[in-house]
Known about the structure:
The chain is mostly helical. The chain contains 10 helices and 5 strands. It has helices at about 5-20, 20-60, 65-80, 90-95, 105-120, 140-155, 160-165, 170-175, 205-215, 220-230; strands at about 120-125, 130, 160, 180-185, 190-195. The protein has a 3-stranded antiparallel beta sheet. A two-stranded antiparallel ribbon has the order 1-2. The radius of gyration is 50 Å and the shape is flat. The protein starts with a helix and ends in a 53-residue tail after the last helix.
Amino acid sequence: MDPALLRERELFKKRALSTPAVEKRQASSDSGSHKKKKPKVDKESSSGSKESSNGNFNIKTSSGYKFGCLAKIVNYMKTRHQNGDTHFLTLEEILDETKLLDISMKQKQWLMTEALVSNPKIEVRDGTYGFKPKYNLKDKKALLRLLDKHDQLGLGGVLLDDVEEGLPNSAKAIKALGDQIIFVTRPDKKKILFYNDKHCQFAVDEEFQKLWRGVPVDSMDEEKIDEYLKKQGISSMQETGPKKVLPVQKRKKQGGQRKRHFKTHNNHLAGVLEDYSDGVPVKK
């Protein structure tokens, strides 16, 4: 073969080997990897946006959010009642004043048909809503009548919390009543209001008080006290309540069977008929 052709062939091979074919493949693989990485980033960002949107949606439609709205409405209605605003409001007015305008129609329907209707602290009247306290008191006179009624019926006092809940501007009214009411603090720190019946206030002689307090009755029960009073010629107060009716005791049946007697008929056959009431007679 011609040496010139051989040299050209060798040069061609060298040029072929020196061409960037492998570099092009790496570039294509790199570009492919970049293409693969891009959708990952997009996917993550899109999934993140979905999570945030789903997160907002879950918060707005969760039961905790619903009951939080209900609690806010009840507390607002209670506060305005305590401030003297006792007129009823529509649901739209309540939502406007409590700034709950972003709730959905489904939640509004739930408030109208279930939550507010069944709440013991909310009263519904012709599609409007108002606060419903335990004691609906208009003024200090109504409070005094309530305490007097409890005193007359032996029901005791009334919780200060219930009075503050039902009486508008309760602090001012209680202060105006002065010594007509008595405060008693329970062991759990809650205050009770009692009617101060001034007709029951009378002076007791100090000597009598000393005698009364000097009689030890801690170790004596009611029966012993009653027996002691009888010995001293003092009759104790008897029970005035309904007496217990003792059950009637049934008479016991007498033992043994009584012999039954039968009326006899056919007296004209007295010599012919025989009596078998005691059994068959033994033949002699």
